[in-house]
Description:
Elements: H1 4-16, H2 19-26, H3 30-44, E1 49-52, E2 55-58, H4 63-84, E3 92-98, H5 100-107, H6 111-117, E4 121-127, E5 139-142, E6 151-166, E7 176-178, H7 186-195, E8 201-203, H8 206-216, E9 220-223, H9 224-227, E10 233-235, E11 242-252, H10 259-279
Parallel strand pairs: 3-4, 3-5, 7-8
Antiparallel strand pairs: 1-2, 5-11, 6-9, 6-10, 6-11
Helix pairs in contact: 1-2, 1-3, 2-3
Amino acid sequence: MKNWDDLRYLLALHKAGTMTAAAQILGTNVATVSRRIEKMSETFGYPPFTRQNDRWMLTSRLQNLVETIEVFESALTREKNRAMMLSDDQRLPIRVGTPPMVASQVLYPSFQYAMEALSHVGLEFFERVGGEGMGEHDIVIQPHRPVSGRLITQRVGSMRLALYAPRGYSGCTQWIGLSRSFDDLPSQQIGFRHFDTDPIIRTHLAEHVYQIMKTTGLPGIVPCTMVAHDPDMELLDPKTGAHDLDFWVAYHASRQGDPIIQATKDWISHCFKKLAEAEKTLPGF
């Protein structure tokens, strides 16, 4: 296979799992992705992917090839970023996968600092709830240490979540929780221990948990910085009803030494330090 561009299509579909998502990564359309993958079937003599449920899964015969392509692409991006950092008028894109509550409670409040510290970086945020691997992201933030792939990981801080209820809460056993992908996390376990039952309503956004709490009068587990200063909310149990949830960043090992990755990681660490400072002033603890 002489055309590097063909290999980009192979890698994109492997990362994305669907033709539509792969087309978005590549900046093309689904028909083109399908045509290029079909062309590679002829080149290899067998289909590079098989359809499982709603996703395209790479054949095990090509696993080593795709890993090599990924390392090469990441190394190419790293060296390009090093070269372009020397220019004063270049803003290099980076795709950050993050849980929405980290974006709203940790990252977005520190954008002013980002404007100075990341003057060469074009941040692009993507909602990420659960999952392993990097997907199409350059760097990811998640509430457990990643274990799959050739990744470099680092704990960057924690976020305090707690069990709050609207004032006047009647003491029933109904509660609002995050989606099932959070069930194994210690923060979500607070609700299971306290109420001994599943939440009656679930959502993947902490902001939505908060809104539903206000409209239903039911308790829920939310980031403390989101609700602690709301006079209509009260902390139910500061001793057993709160947890500092650790968060980790991860990026591909081949991006080590990439100045854009390093600058972004440093900014994320700064954001979590600012969060820790804010949490020290919260009422109820």
